[in-house]
Amino acid sequence: MKSRFHILLAGILCISGTCNDLNAQHTRVGLLAYNTKSISEMNKFSGNDTVSTKPIASWDVHSKALRLFEKDYKQVEKVDWFVLDDGYLARFRTDEVLNKVYYGKKGNWIGSTQQYNESRLPKEVRHIVKSNYYDFDISTVVEINIGGKVVYYVVMHNNTELLKVRVKDREIEELERFKNGQ
After folding, report:
1. Which of 8-17, 52-61, 129-138, 152-161 is predicted least confidently?
2. For the residues of 64-117, what is the DSSP string, one character each?
3. Quick one: DSSP state of residue 58?
4. Domains of the chain: residue spans and CATH
5. Which residues contact residue 179 at a Cβ distance below 8 angstroms, ignoring those fewer than 6 apart?
6. What is the C-alpha separation between 34 and 41, in angstroms, rounded?
7. What is the DSSP letter of 31?
8. Strand order in the sheet with 97-104
């Protein structure tokens, strides 16, 4: 289970590389959201998110993964598939949400991530975050779902600081804090 978590975490760490519509400040905020101790550590977990840098054809994906994807995401018309060290990644957008769904080598669902802005954050989670950090604006949210357990990584900023927190089981934990310009 830990290795699956690391696969998903590494996938999240690479999401910022797929978002090219961010302005300069949000780019820094986005990079903060997915930064681990080092880029080499991130690459160690996932080979920079995918083994293949270009999408693969759907017929190269395990049939079970395709069946599960088509069952769970009927509305998705354009999906890019990638090979991972331990399985497959389906990446697609719905509205303004970047989605990634992870499958094992045998096609079993491992988990998923969604990246979005504050407006899509569940009210209960937003309340937890804002009641602790009311002077901060929420920039980016990454929602991780592994086996039905959901964790939220929230990146925020104000005039002087960048901040990353995790919300899990209605508890909030501050992960990183940086002064602007550092």
Report:
1. 8-17
2. HHHHHHHHH-TT----EEEEETTEEEEEEEETTEEEEEEEETTS-EEEEEEEE-
3. G
4. 2-179 (3.10.450.360)
5. 160, 161
6. 12
7. H
8. 80-84, 87-94, 97-104, 109-116, 137-146, 149-157, 161-168, 171-179
Cα 26 to Cα 42: distance, rounded to the nearest angstrom:
21
**Token pair belonging to 55:** 């999408």
Query: What is the 8-class DSSP label of residue 56?
Result: B
**pLDDT for 135:** 94
Identify residue 174 by its one-letter amino acid code.
Answer: E
Q: Residue 179 has what DSSP assignment? A: E
The identity of residue 51, as a single letter, is V
Q: Which of 174, 170, 168 is nearest to 149 (CA)?
A: 168
